[in-house]
């Protein structure tokens, strides 16, 4: 059998009951997996690491953000899968034995959006965290998320969704995990940890501003972001925490200050951090050390996690959790499950969060989270075309 085309793989993804797609931000690494050889539910970092070492090829999945349970899901509470067959697009390599030949796709029109429900009281709830931080200087930052439910007339065409991800979010990581009637989709800009033969890469990503209507406005906004005290403080919390959690297991290298990362809807402050690992550390060992960073949780972490449980109305599940690929030798890449949505039957749940500080404007933060939902909303809107 000749190696399948990307279109064939996307069509196969749509009609498969179990499938996974993973692509790095530069698209130099891309995997499609189908079927289930083995799977893990709700396991911790050590359990998944030990299980992955027993396999012949990479496993894929994610960890729930915290211990709160999504009651009507098996996927969102932590799930990893060893696909029955796995295609490596970059190396044109197949793992496993293919038993489901690629046939002609069945054209399926995508669904329309029938309704949308937002958490309109989110700013009022977030204000309680702002008031707390203004009264207690030891409470420095908390990342608070909200969810949007979008009702659809039918199931998504996932072949179309994968193609739209490639065109609409070309510079993001892509992660799509399907199990039965559940699908988790992320077009995240943020890597948690990459490990390859003792070398590691991570990054601090925090601080956000919109894109400009033209190049001049875009550059002005980027300069504004680089000079904004609130965003610089938020970013510094993230970088300082990453360095403190990794300095005893690695030699670190990082620039003097943040750079700008541009995505289609927003631009972020970004500090790449690379280095050499000391000893036999794996990608999951680093992910466990780093999660949750202040970019997803807050500072101090125990207080921030308690505020998240108190203020957010629904469990996060895989949103903001570590997701990605783990190889048998412990190398791999874990990313952060943001710019994401969870699909179950005819409902899409979209997620977005914002870093809240003592001087945050809660209405501005609400608008920022709406902007961060745009990538997933655009995917849904394209289905009806």
Automatic annotation (TrEMBL):
Keywords of the record: Isomerase
Alphabetized Gene3D superfamilies for the sequence: Anthranilate synthase
EC number: 5.4.4.2
Ranges where the Chorismate-utilising enzyme C-terminal domain occurs: 119-372
Catalytic activity: chorismate = isochorismate
GO process annotations (BP): salicylic acid biosynthetic process
Top EC category: isomerase
Gene Ontology molecular function, alphabetical: isochorismate synthase activity
Residues forming coiled coils: none
Entry's family note: Belongs to the isochorismate synthase family.
Protein name, as recorded: isochorismate synthase
Species classification: Bacteria, Bacillati, Bacillota, Bacilli, Lactobacillales
């Amino acid at each position: 059998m000749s190696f399948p085309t990307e279109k064939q793989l996307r069509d196969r993804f749509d009609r498969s009951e179990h499938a996974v797609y993973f692509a790095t931000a530069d698209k130099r690494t891309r995997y499609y997996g189908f079927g289930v050889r083995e799977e893990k539910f709700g396991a911790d970092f050590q359990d998944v690491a030990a299980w992955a070492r027993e396999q012949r090829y990479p496993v894929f999945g994610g960890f729930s953000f915290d211990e709160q349970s999504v009651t009507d899901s098996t996927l969102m509470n932590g799930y990893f899968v060893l696909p029955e067959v796995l295609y490596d697009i970059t190396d044109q390599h197949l793992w496993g034995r293919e038993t489901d030949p690629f046939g002609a796709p069945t054209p399926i029109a995508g669904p329309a959006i029938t309704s949308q429900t937002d958490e309109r009281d989110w700013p009022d709830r977030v204000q309680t965290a702002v008031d707390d931080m203004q009264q207690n200087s030891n409470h420095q930052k908390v990342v608070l998320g909200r969810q949007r439910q979008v009702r659809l007339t039918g199931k998504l065409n996932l072949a179309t969704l994968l193609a739209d991800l490639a065109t609409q979010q070309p510079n993001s990581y892509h992660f799509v995990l399907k199990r039965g009637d559940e699908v988790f989709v992320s077009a995240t800009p943020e890597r948690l940890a990459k490990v390859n033969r003792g070398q590691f890469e991570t990054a601090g990503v925090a601080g956000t501003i919109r894109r400009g209507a033209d190049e001049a406005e875009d550059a002005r906004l980027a300069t504004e972001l680089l000079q904004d005290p609130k965003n610089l403080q938020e970013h510094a919390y993230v970088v300082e925490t990453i360095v403190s959690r990794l300095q005893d297991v690695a030699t670190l290298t990082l620039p003097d200050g943040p750079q700008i990362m541009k995505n289609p809807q927003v631009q972020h402050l970004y500090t790449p951090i690379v280095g050499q690992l000391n000893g036999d550390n794996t990608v999951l060992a680093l992910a466990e050390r780093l999660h949750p960073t202040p970019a997803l949780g807050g500072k101090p972490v125990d207080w921030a996690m308690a505020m998240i449980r108190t203020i957010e109305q629904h469990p996060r599940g895989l949103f903001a959790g570590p997701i990605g690929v783990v190889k048998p030798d412990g190398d791999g890449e874990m990313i952060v499950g943001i710019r994401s949505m969870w699909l179950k039957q005819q409902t899409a749940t979209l997620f977005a969060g914002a870093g809240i500080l003592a001087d945050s404007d809660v209405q501005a933060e609400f608008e920022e989270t709406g902007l961060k939902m745009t990538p997933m909303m655009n995917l849904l809107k394209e289905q009806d075309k």
